[in-house]
Design goal:
Belongs to the short-chain dehydrogenases/reductases (SDR) family. InterPro entries: NAD(P)-bd_dom_sf (IPR036291), Sc_DH/Rdtase_CS (IPR020904), SDR_fam (IPR002347). Pfam families: adh_short_C2 (PF13561). One of its GO terms (molecular function) is androstan-3-alpha,17-beta-diol dehydrogenase (NAD+) activity. The protein is globular. The chain has a single domain, classed as NAD(P)-binding Rossmann-like Domain (Rossmann fold), CATH 3.40.50. The chain has a seven-stranded parallel beta sheet with strand order 3-2-1-4-5-6-7, sandwiched between helices. About 40% of the residues lie in helices and about 15% in strands. The protein contains six helices and seven strands. The protein binds NADP nicotinamide-adenine-dinucleotide phosphate (NAP).
Length: about 240
């Protein structure tokens, strides 16, 4: 591994890291030498993954402001720094707009958007003190275009993309970089009900969590030292063209 790709000595928090794409981020960052803190509501899976890798697990509901303080304070006390935060925890819900309840709307915005905001805010003081940091916010191709029935999800992922830009502008002078990743269709629990056959993907297959590993490593490490406020699309080319029936 070259120096720019190495994360040796760095400390990374990955929300929703117990399974799915978050697990792939955890494995990639761990493989590059970082100490990874898996922050998730899934205690069983989170502990098991942490034990397998020699990583840490912290129970965290990303919508809980006080829990963020507790988790970040704990990481700083034990490891002395937070160099990388991957705001990955997310949920999806869907309904035609006439049936899209306020409860559904509030639920998806709370996790995907407010959770990301709280995470960014929680790590900034430590990153400012260190004079460096990389925050990686997980948006979606639904942060770039509309999608039938996914009203709250789409709104939340556009907002995550926007929050990423305002933070990048504000925090650049402090040495903190903030970028978003926009996955396409990736096979996880979240997408089990989606038929991959209905989507036109130029690379001719749905993605798997490991397809995101290279992007998170690039954005976390020094290879991207001059990269902030960007949006990296990892979708097999799905949003590159105009879909035709
Ligand atoms: P997933 O398999 O459902 O994993 C999401 C993880 O986040 C789960 O462990 C989940 O736990 C956890 N989580 C949910 N709510 C949480 C909360 N309030 N606090 C802490 N953790 C919470 O989903 P995924 O497919 O890996 O998606 C990961 C991220 O990528 C999400 O932000 C998603 O929007 C984004 N994304 C996914 C795709 C895709 O095709 N899969 C495409 C674009 C973007 P529970 O199971 O208990 O809820």
């Amino acid at each position: 591994m070259n120096d720019a790709a190495s994360l040796a000595g760095r400390v990374a928090i990955v929300t929703g890291g117990a399974r799915g794409i978050g697990e792939a981020y955890v494995r990639a960052l761990h493989g590059a030498g970082a100490h990874v803190v898996i922050a998730d509501v899934l205690t069983g899976e989170g502990h098991a993954l942490a034990e397998e890798l020699g990583a840490s697990f912290a129970h965290l509901d990303v919508t809980d402001e006080a829990a963020w303080t507790r988790v970040v304070d704990g990481v700083l006390a034990e490891h002395g720094a937070v160099d990388v935060l991957v705001n990955n925890a997310g949920i999806a819900n869907a309904a035609p707009i006439e049936h899209f309840t306020l409860r559904k709307w509030n639920a998806v915005l709370a996790v995907n958007l407010t959770g990301t905001f709280l995470g960014c805010r929680a790590v900034v003081p430590a990153m400012k003190a260190a004079g460096r940091g990389s925050i990686i916010n997980i948006s979606s191709v639904e942060g770039l275009r509309g999608s039938v029935h996914l009203h709250g999800y789409t709104a939340s992922k556009f907002a995550v993309r926007g929050l990423t830009k305002s933070l990048a502008v504000e925090l650049g002078p402090a040495g903190i970089r903030v970028n978003s990743i926009h996955p396409g269709l990736i096979l996880t629990e979240m997408t089990t009900r989606i038929d991959p056959g209905v989507l036109i993907v130029p690379l001719a297959r749905p993605g798997v969590p490991a397809d995101l590993a290279g992007t998170v490593l690039f954005l976390a490490g020094d290879a991207s030292a001059y990269v902030t406020g960007t949006e990296t699309v990892v979708d097999g080319g799905m949003t590159a063209g105009i879909p035709h029936h």
